[in-house]
UniProtKB/TrEMBL annotation:
Membrane topology: Multi-pass membrane protein
Organism, scientific name: Rhizocola hellebori
Domain ABC transmembrane type-2: 16-253
GO CC annotations on file: ATP-binding cassette (ABC) transporter complex
PANTHER family in UniProt: ABC-TYPE MULTIDRUG TRANSPORT SYSTEM, PERMEASE COMPONENT (PTHR43229:SF6), NODULATION PROTEIN J (PTHR43229)
Main localisation: membrane
Protein name: Transport permease protein
GO BP of this protein: response to antibiotic
Localization of this protein: Cell membrane; Membrane
Keyword Cytoplasm: no
Length: 258
């Protein structure tokens, strides 16, 4: 918990990082919601309401996968991790601190986007326990899986300067082929749908849509249903697979260090 407190203090002390971290998904949501605001194919649901549910998943992926990958790469290069290895602290505490930081940021980011969706786009927030339980397990599994992938992928950039490009490229590609920026997902070519279905972002977005959209919107999904069982299965698989990737690929030291 002490390490978590340190990570939170370091994050919120950098005001520019705080502003841009929270602003990116919100600005994207405002832009998409302003451009696509009509009734979606006669469903009675506006396109910006659908985008709100999807952008929640994109915000989680950005905060965990992208930000963790970039942040750890920077800590590795500037010597932060090297100095921590010299203090009497278990190594896993550093990674736990980063993961919990991402969890806190994700929670704040979702609260902001839901506020925007409700106030500006007329999004309906569920009132029954069942929908919120679905939200809870999709959120928990999505954050865990994407955080594991972000930690594992932090070893890919050769330098901290290249980390933003290395981490943002797969994130942006997956956002397009996972039904975040293109709705409904079934309008994409089958090959792109198949590729996007391998990764957790598509299933996380589908899970969040099932929480904030009416049951009639399930017909717009590729399978014509919310597929909660498959959503849970894929997200759990990525939590386990992400952990394995972390154990296999994570580097504590900069690869250029002698």
């Amino acid at each position: 918990m002490r390490r978590v407190g340190i990570e939170l203090k370091m994050f919120f002390r950098h005001r520019d990082a705080v502003v841009f971290t929270f602003a990116l998904p919100v600005i994207m949501l405002l832009l998409l919601g302003s451009i696509f605001s009509d009734d979606f194919e006669g469903t009675g649901i506006t396109a910006n309401q659908i985008f709100t549910a999807g952008m929640i998943a994109a915000g989680v992926a950005s905060t965990t996968f992208v930000n963790l990958g970039i942040g750890i790469s920077q800590d590795r290069e500037d010597g932060t991790i090297k100095r921590l290895l010299g203090v009497p602290m278990p190594r896993y505490e550093y990674l736990v601190g980063k993961a919990v930081l991402s969890l806190v940021i994700c929670a704040c980011e979702i609260a902001i986007m839901l506020t925007v969706g409700v106030l500006l786009f007329g999004l309906s927030v569920p009132t029954d326990v069942g929908h919120w339980l679905t939200f809870a397990w999709v959120f928990a599994l999505g954050v865990s899986g994407c955080a594991m992938l972000g930690i594992a992928a932090s070893s890919l950039p050769r330098t901290a300067r290249s980390a933003p490009a290395v981490m943002n490229l797969p994130y942006l590609v997956l956002s397009f082929i996972s039904g975040i920026f293109v709705i409904p997902l079934k309008h994409l070519p089958d090959s792109l749908i198949a590729i996007g279905s391998i990764f957790p972002l598509r299933w996380m977005a589908q899970g969040f849509r099932s929480v904030f959209l009416p049951e009639t919107m399930a017909a717009q999904e590729v399978a014509g249903s919310w597929e909660h069982g498959r959503v849970a299965l894929v997200l759990v698989a990525w939590c386990v697979g992400g952990l394995v990737l972390c154990l296999m690929t994570f580097r504590w030291r900069d690869r250029r260090a002698s």
